[in-house]
Amino acid sequence: MAANPAFVIVGAGLAGAKAAQTLREEAFDGPIVLLGAEQERPYERPPLSKGYLLGRDERDSVYVHPPEWYAEHDVDLRLGVTATAVDPAGHEVTLVDGSRIGYTKLLLTTGSAPRRLTVPGGDLVGVHYLRRLADSDRIKEAFGSASRVVVIGAGWIGLETAAAARAAGVEVTLLEVAELPLLRVLGREVARTFADLHADHGVDLRFGVQVAEITGTGGRVNGVLTTDGSRIDADAVIVGVGITPDTRLAEAAGLEVDNGIRVDAHLCTSHPDVHAAGDVANAFHPLLGKHIRVEHWANAVNQPQVAAKAMLGRDVTYDRVPYFFTDQYDLGMEYTGHVEPGGYDRVVFRGRRDTREFIAFWLAEGRVLAGMNVNVWDVTDPIRALVTSGRAVDAGELADVDVPLADLSGRSDATG
After folding, report:
1. Is the separation of the CB atoms in 237 and 215 below 8 Å?
2. pLDDT tens column, 93-125
3. Which residues pair with 224 in a beta bridge?
4. What tens digit of pLDDT does each residue of 297-353 get?
């Protein structure tokens, strides 16, 4: 065990790197140990299915910090190192080689892992999941040699990789068990936008479809069989059927786990010296009044800053409104807010849906729960203000492009 117990961060992704950076910015001068199971230094994940996969961004652009940053800031970055156990009572982390590191405060940023498709042929060469930088490299390479790709799952990863494949000139068949892409996230009213977008770009969309088997020859994938008996030829298969928070360390340590590591508004776990942030954290949100787990870039950037300050004893809470974005073909989108499936009673559109230049608002009893701007820019702040205001708004004015959004969020006499 280390003679001088450190602040230890398990998980050297974007969240872990941002936590280490914040600790130094907040004048913490004690030891910081950042443990990463990968050999790559911390990097951001959105480019893996966007700019980097499309070949627009250079490899170096995905990293959080330059390689020399960690030594310059006295951060002990240990790559290719897996933590196997946490002892909250003894304040120790055990590593795969049996060695132990003592800590005064521990931050778990263990992230998540792709859900695996459990069908025959799921382990064939040419079946890809996208989570790590090496995964993006392999998929990019596949796009260079494949003529036909099957994408399983029409969530964000599935749609973004389908768009990247089409940009590379590859034929794409997209299989989704639901009736529309992103149905649980966006609801029927808005999900149609993404179905039409991909159809317009030549993607063969098949909804209400389940995969029975991935077929192959010589150990390499050559197609997909669906439960209705259809067969789709494929040179590569990309699976994007969701992710699962990596709570293994937390569970074994006896921390409270419920759809992720359960933390309070200060991002503290059920043990006062252990915090969690990023994909793995199911955090209490003061504005929403409930726990939510958000699997997006903005959380990985912003949550660890609060967690780091809380570890230093500051009275801080994480109350940022959830935010995420996507880029597909000529469509750029930002989403601000949080809506549970079926948790709204109305969707109001502002702008032109036919040209995909609009804002969609999800409302409940006249209050704006979330807003999504599609090819409309510089409106995130007023959308956030509408969400956080808690006031009811007039739906007609919300839809009227001549009524400034900033005016609606500031009215105290607005009615639904």
Report:
1. no
2. 999 999 999 999 999 999 999 999 999 999 999
3. 214, 232
4. 999 999 999 999 999 999 999 999 999 999 999 999 999 999 988 899 999 999 999
Say if CB 345 and CB 311 are below 8 A apart.
no
- Residue 411 clears pLDDT 60, i.e. is over it: no
Q: Count the Cβ atoms, other than its own, within 10 Å of residue 378.
A: 7
> Could you please report the per-residue DSSP string of 324-381?
EEEEETTEEEEEEE---TT--SEEEEEEETTTTEEEEEEEETTEEEEEEEES--S-HH
Q: Which amino acid is at 324?
A: F
Could you tell me the two tokens for 74? 């006295």
> What is the mean predicted confidence (pLDDT) over 282-301?
95
Rounded Cα gap, residues 236 and 177, in angstroms: 19
Which residue reads 């601000």 in tokens? 336
Q: Answer yes or no: do 155 and 230 share one domain.
A: yes
Same-domain status, 158 and 56: no
**What is the residue whose two structure tokens read 């870039």?**
297
Q: Which amino acid is at 158?
A: G
Rounded CA gap, 280 and 277, in Å? 6
Q: Which domain holds residue 161?
A: 116-241
> The CATH number of the domain where 70 resides is what?
3.50.50.60
pLDDT tens, position by position, 170-185: 999 999 999 999 999 9
